[in-house]
Fold this sequence. Notes:
The protein is an alpha/beta fold. It has helices at 15-18, 101-115, 117-120, 134-144, 155-159, 194-199, 207-212, 239-251, 275-290; strands spanning 26-36, 39-47, 54-60, 85-89, 122-132, 166-170, 226-231, 256-261. The protein has one domain (15-290): Alpha/Beta hydrolase fold, catalytic domain (Rossmann fold).
Amino acid sequence: MAWGESLQGQRVESRSTRERVPAGTRVERDVVYERVGDRELHLDFYRPPTQSKLPLVVWVHGGGWKSGSKNGAGPSKILLTRGFAVASVEYRLSGEATFPAAVVDCKAAVSFLRKHADRFGIDPARIGAWGSSAGGHLVAMLGTTGDDQTFDLHPVSKEVSSRVQAVCNWFGPSDFLRMNDVKGAIDHDAPDSPESRFIGGAIQENVTLVQRANPITYITEGDPPFLHLHGSKDRLVPLSQSQLLDAALRKAGVQTELHVVVDGDHGFRGAREPMRDIIDRSIRFFESTLRETDRTSNE
């Protein structure tokens, strides 16, 4: 089974499925948020019909950093019925560019949306990030590097902050070097593993680079609130990955919660908990954080 490709709700959706948004929703597809040479990077933007400035949640897709698409926006479009705007972002996959490209791209997307907050009708002080699998790793990186300019390499991120105010991590990896601590469906240390392809070499032979890709490396007490959801029987990204990140955040004094989805495999397959409850838990997290965020926080 390929890493991240069979996630429930994560498949690339057909055009008819992608159009299923609440009536009156403003939809802008393939907005160019940055360019790398001749390569355009895109995002899709969704906004419910209201005159108010809305909190925004940025959705980052999974697929082992090697596949997947922004199309469809995963489960995040449900937020449109709860008073949020949503942006689903494209990033360079590992077959095109290795680490830190994907992180750099996601941060640029946040900066672009914040820079153009008036155009999109969003509150630049209330931006959250939600991602699954590889996307979970990338949103965790967004959350812990908000006060670190290491990955602010695109022009827009040098101009406008890429900080986010809340992070929902669905079963993302954190410490690649410890993914084989629990026997699973694949050998993460192999030179052709998703993690090795993401880094650009076998992870155990590139320890320093791997540590740079670990969100735990950048944790400070000023990081935003985190919610982690992870299946207890995940065979592709072991539960211990979210446990490590949650523990490190907690040690630093960051607000964090880990919810273990009992019997859930990767993508929560086989979980005792209904998917609608898992999604609702995630949405309630954003409601409790982004609707109470201090509007004077860094933009």
